[in-house]
Amino acid sequence: MPDPLLFLDVDGVLNPAHPDPDDHFDRHQLLGYTVLLSQRHGEWLRELAGHYRLVWATTWEEQANLHIAPRLGLPELPVVRFTGYVPQPDDPEVPLLDLFSGRKWAPIVRYADGRPFAWIDDIIPGSLRRRALPRRDRTLLRVDPGQGLQRRHVDRLLARPPRPALLHRANLLHRADLLRGRAGGPGPG
Q1: Is residue 7 within 8 Å of residue 57, measured between CB atoms?
Q2: Closest to 52 (Cα-Cα) out of 120, 104, 113
Q3: 41-73 per-position pLDDT tens digit
């Protein structure tokens, strides 16, 4: 079974607003912004890479590979593209009040394409987190943007990684009918 995907945000997760001074963040000037990065995060992400396929899910997009990954000791990672994303008719629904904060949801779900995934971000609407709770194939972790990624988040991802969704018995029977060529309803056989 392939590793689940781990979608990573940068600002608020790897670049916290008010980190604990004991967490040893280095200050960088990147693309006109002050960015705080910690080597500890790089160590944790490399640890997670042994169990997940890491994917950037940040508005930094490809810039994360140029400016963030090398400073954390990460290889180039795949990127979910949000810029220019055109909503599709079959995109997952996001409640009206969450449209702005949930703007990453459809591109992430489309990128996952049915694979199990975890998403760690400082902006994940509560409605999406609640809908993901009963699902074994999705883990949505909201991070406090002031403190950023913490060891407890890493431990949670390692202890309970998302797994493939269970297929309901009705889906299994329907798929079996499709394989036997009986999808059109009752017939010979």
Answers
A1: yes
A2: 120
A3: 999 999 999 999 999 999 999 999 999 999 999
pLDDT for residue 174: 52
User: If you classify domain 5-180 with CATH, what class do you get?
Assistant: alpha beta
Closest CA to 77 of 104, 111, 109, 125: 111
Every domain of the chain and the residues it spans: 5-180
Q: How many residues does the chain have?
A: 189
Q: What is the DSSP string of the chain?
A: -PPPEEEE--BTTTB-SS--GGG-EEEEEETTEEEEEEHHHHHHHHHHTTTSEEEE-STTTTHIIIIIHHHHT-----B---TT----TTSPP--GGGTTTTTTHHHHHHHHTT--EEEEES---HHHHHHHTT-SSEEEEE--TTT-S-HHHHHHHHHS---PPPPPHHHHHHHHHHHHT-TTSS---
- Per the CB < 8 A criterion, the answer to whether 177 and 68 are in contact is no
* pTM of the predicted model over 0.70: yes
Neighbours of 57 (CB within 10 A): 29
Residues 6 or more apart from 50 whose CB is under 8 A from it?
Answer: none
pLDDT in tens, 96-131: 544 444 568 788 988 999 999 999 999 888 777 777
